[in-house]
Amino acid sequence: MNTSSRHPTSPHLQIYRLPLTALLSITHRTTGVFLVIGAVLLVAVLAALAGGTDSYTPFQAFLQSWFGQLILFAITFSLYFHFCNGIRHLFWDVGMGFELETTDKTAKLAIVISIVLTVATWFVAAGVE
Hints:
By secondary structure, this protein is mainly alpha-helical. The chain has one domain: 3 helical TM bundles of succinate and fumarate reductases (Up-down Bundle). 78% of the residues lie in helices and 0% in strands. It is built from four helices and no strands. α1 (20-51) packs antiparallel against α2, α1 packs across α3 and α3 (66-93) runs antiparallel to α4 (100-128).
């Protein structure tokens, strides 16, 4: 390694702060993985339902546990976030919203709307029980 180089080195990840749009890009991919897990879970639940009460009861107990509720909450948030952030990408696909101020505003808006929709969905679902 040439230590006598006068070129600056890149900042370490502990020093460098990722822009909000980069964090949302990473989160968009992560929520996509959660949605795949949710789809697999949905198929498993439907298969258990088709098998009758004996096969569905363990799934129902799991989904009603704190861990099952946490997974369902994460899947709900993932669905809304992936949808809201996907709308941002659709605007980008047609060449709109690339200004730095606009990307930051729409990023924050996607986060807020995702949280509001997730909480509203769980609030309504709690009222249905």
